[in-house]
């Protein structure tokens, strides 16, 4: 039974088919887009600086930021303060206003347009060419007229069979058998819900086993995380009490299992929650506790700070890394502007939810480690496994202002630089133009980059980010992608012209290329029109005669 | 201004993009950003809304940046930010730096202005006399006509304009 959990033949074929269709439909663009999709390109160096500041204080910030800001412009090597010294503070502030790294974690960056999901396309970023419009119409038809009814049916049938099965299971003889049947039914319900968004989930690693004193922690993108994990194993969860549909589902789960739902507004709740959590974790008879220590839903490419609560219990921590592929639907729930039913509806009218779940080997707190450090270590494990961008912001900052102590420690850092400079201890680095002047005077200096040490020795970023920084300049991701795509295209063009100069062989190659692109376009259009006609024929076949009549009358009038 | 991008008309985008010398795409992106920051949907950004950006809240110079960005509509918002674009004129960038120092907005950086700004940068971590000493030295070095304050032209000759402009450039 356990071995079969990743076998979902139909869904695999479906997702594969979607992939093939997009590849034909959008041709070589897809290749660029697809290889970029898995590499978010946010402002990595900025995130690094902020991460380190939030975790270790302003040391690196001081080194990297102020010192590079406090440069000598003329010959006043020892001047404590110069008028140009505010430059980095000002540009950093303006940058924060224009785009900040906290908001990036909670903003649904739309998936690329080749997934036919137009509601996610920001205005002006993608041209509706006739061909794209055709595909889009087919997409709308398929998603709303075909997938949605099918999925609603799945949900209804699933819910009915579940509600029939539940009382039947209660009639079973023996407590143990009853419990097993109920657990199975809950997993069944979760799989039904996952199926309703064509969830294609791959589980990696060992399936959980219940032992006392263990706790599972996972990164959080949307409440649907819960269904996906519940599908594989019965977890108990802890979370904020919701209202509406989400609240109803919570009540339903509560009736069947032990969960802890709390209300953030209530002051006394916090201590009670920790007590409940402790008791639950220690009790080996209850389901293992699943915690989302980020405390809020985060965009699927980022992971924000883990709150320390679940790491101080002294329990064995089992990290779970979840990575969504946003190709065929965006799973991020932005609770600020989307209600939960609406979120579910959007998922049900998307193509598919593709997700990888990695169970990571359990870790224990080290003797010399605080709960915060331990939480950060676990977070690093998860980020590395799921290739997430690690950001150290507290989810709490989404709604509240940051504590002034960070401002104060920055002021202290700058004050210490001024003081040291006044005492003549800290010479200023050269400004770029002063350096240029020296270089043009024939005194070119090889200066080592002042920032390379420090951070890396802390081993604080996953390696992927380092690599990315080498490759990627600072750019907001969307713009950067466009630039990169452009650059790649230009690069390819350059190759072509190089080859073209060879002569006859080059000309032949160009002809072949031309034929290839013609063939490709023909296939694309044929497929587009084919899909459209197919959609029309199916509609014609299944539409009731009275509706047709109504449409015809409507058209004539 | 309404709740979605569509309320920004295409002509408005064109106009703003021409005035601020930014690509249309950037103007649209900034509009989305502006709406996100404008939590109350009032059409202007107030200090509380801006300070919800933790990176700004942590910035020692945030009171001065707020003075520029507070209560502005989208149009001015874009113009302020456009000064920092890689294609922005050096003149505009230096102007912005000058405005940051010129706390009382009288067109001159007085000793008092400079004292206020340095006080923001170091908080309570340096004694008053030291700050005053630093201020006196900066003003003395830059003040060419010896009137005890720094004018706009004195500011230009006191700073390394090319270096300052290159560091007042933001990729957004």
Automatic annotation (TrEMBL), chain A:
Its main location: membrane. GO terms for biological process: phospholipid biosynthetic process; triglyceride biosynthetic process. The chain crosses the membrane at residues 134-164, 184-201. Residues 214-325 form the Phospholipid/glycerol acyltransferase domain. Pfam families: Acyltransferase. Keywords: Acyltransferase, Lipid biosynthesis, Lipid metabolism, Membrane, Phospholipid biosynthesis, Phospholipid metabolism, Transferase, Transmembrane, Transmembrane helix. Belongs to the 1-acyl-sn-glycerol-3-phosphate acyltransferase family. This is Phospholipid/glycerol acyltransferase domain-containing protein.
TrEMBL record, chain B:
The keyword Glycoprotein does not apply. The keyword DNA damage does not apply. Residues 25-60, 89-124, 130-165 form the EF-hand domain. SUPFAM superfamilies: EF-hand. It holds the Pfam family EF-hand_7. GO terms for molecular function: calcium ion binding. This is EF-hand domain-containing protein. It comes from Chondrus crispus.
């Amino acid at each position: 039974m356990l071995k079969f959990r990743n076998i979902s033949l139909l869904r695999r074929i479906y997702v594969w088919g979607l992939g093939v269709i997009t590849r034909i439909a959008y041709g070589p663009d897809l290749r660029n887009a697809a290889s970029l999709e898995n590499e978010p390109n946010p402002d990595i160096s900025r995130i690094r600086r902020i991460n380190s500041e939030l975790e270790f204080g302003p040391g690196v910030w001081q080194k990297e930021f102020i010192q590079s800001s406090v440069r000598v412009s003329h010959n006043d090597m020892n001047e404590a303060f110069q008028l140009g010294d505010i430059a980095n503070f000002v540009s950093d502030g303006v940058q924060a206003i224009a785009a900040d790294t906290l908001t990036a974690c909670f903003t649904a960056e739309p998936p690329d347009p080749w997934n036919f999901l137009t509601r996610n396309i920001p205005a002006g970023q993608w041209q509706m060419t006739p061909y794209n419009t055709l595909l889009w119409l087919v997409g709308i038809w398929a998603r709303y007229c075909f997938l949605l009814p099918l999925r609603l049916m799945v949900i209804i049938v699933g819910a009915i069979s579940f509600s029939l099965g539940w009382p039947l299971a209660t009639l079973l003889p023996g407590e143990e058998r009853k419990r097993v049947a109920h657990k199975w039914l809950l997993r069944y319900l979760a799989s039904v819900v996952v199926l309703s968004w064509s969830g294609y989930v791959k589980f990696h690693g060992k399936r959980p086993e219940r032992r006392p004193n263990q706790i599972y922690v996972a990164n959080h993108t949307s409440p649907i995380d819960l269904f996906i994990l519940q599908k594989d194993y019965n977890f108990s969860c802890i979370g904020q009490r919701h209202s509406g549909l989400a609240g109803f589902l919570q009540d339903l789960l509560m009736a069947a299992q032990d969960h802890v739902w709390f209300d953030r507004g209530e002051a006394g709740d916090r201590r009670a929650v920790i007590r409940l959590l402790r008791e639950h974790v220690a009790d080996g008879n209850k389901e293992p506790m699943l915690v989302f220590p980020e405390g809020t839903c985060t965009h699927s490419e980022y992971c924000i700070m883990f709150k320390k609560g679940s790491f101080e219990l002294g329990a064995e921590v089992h990290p779970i890394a979840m990575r969504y592929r946003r190709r065929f639907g965006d799973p991020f729930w932005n609770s600020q502007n989307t209600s939960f039913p609406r979120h579910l509806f959007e998922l049900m009218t998307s193509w598919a939810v593709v997700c990888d779940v990695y169970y990571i080997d359990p870790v224990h707190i080290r003797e010399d480690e605080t709960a915060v450090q331990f939480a950060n270590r676990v977070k690093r494990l998860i980020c590395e496994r799921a290739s997430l961008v690690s950001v150290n912001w507290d989810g709490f900052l989404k709604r509240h202002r940051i504590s002034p102590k960070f401002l104060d420690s920055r002021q202290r850092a700058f004050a210490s630089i001024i003081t040291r400079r006044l005492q003549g201890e800290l010479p200023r680095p050269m400004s770029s133009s002063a350096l240029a002047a020296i270089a043009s005077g024939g005194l070119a200096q090889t200066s080592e980059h002042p920032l390379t040490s420090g951070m890396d020795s802390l081993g604080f970023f996953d390696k992927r980010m380092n690599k990315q920084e080498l490759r990627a300049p600072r750019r907001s991701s969307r713009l950067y992608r466009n630039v990169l795509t452009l650059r790649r295209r230009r690069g390819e063009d350059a190759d072509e012209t190089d080859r073209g100069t060879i002569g006859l062989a080059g000309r032949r190659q160009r002809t072949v290329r031309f034929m290839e692109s013609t063939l490709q376009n023909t296939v694309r259009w044929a497929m587009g029109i084919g899909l459209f006609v197919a959609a029309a024929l199916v509609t014609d076949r299944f539409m009731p005669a009275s509706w047709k009549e109504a449409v015809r009358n409507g058209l004539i009038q | 201004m309404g709740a979605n991008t569509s309320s920004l008309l295409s002509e408005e985008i064109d106009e703003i993009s021409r005035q601020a010398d930014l690509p249309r795409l950037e103007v649209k992106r900034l509009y989305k950003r502006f709406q996100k920051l404008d939590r109350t949907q009032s059409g202007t950004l107030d200090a509380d809304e801006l300070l919800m950006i933790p990176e700004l809240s942590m910035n020692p110079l945030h009171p001065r940046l707020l003075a520029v960005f507070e209560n502005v509509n989208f149009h001015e918002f874009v113009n302020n930010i456009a000064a920092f674009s890689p294609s922005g004129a050096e003149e505009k960038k230096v102007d912005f730096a000058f405005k940051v120092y010129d706390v009382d907005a009288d067109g001159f950086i007085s000793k008092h202005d400079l004292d206020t700004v340095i006080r923001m940068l170091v908080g309570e971590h340096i004694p008053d006399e030291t700050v005053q000493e630093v201020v006196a030295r900066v003003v003395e070095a830059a003040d060419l006509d010896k009137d005890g304050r720094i004018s706009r032209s004195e500011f230009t000759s006191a700073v390394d304009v090319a270096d300052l402009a290159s560091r007042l450039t933001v990729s957004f």
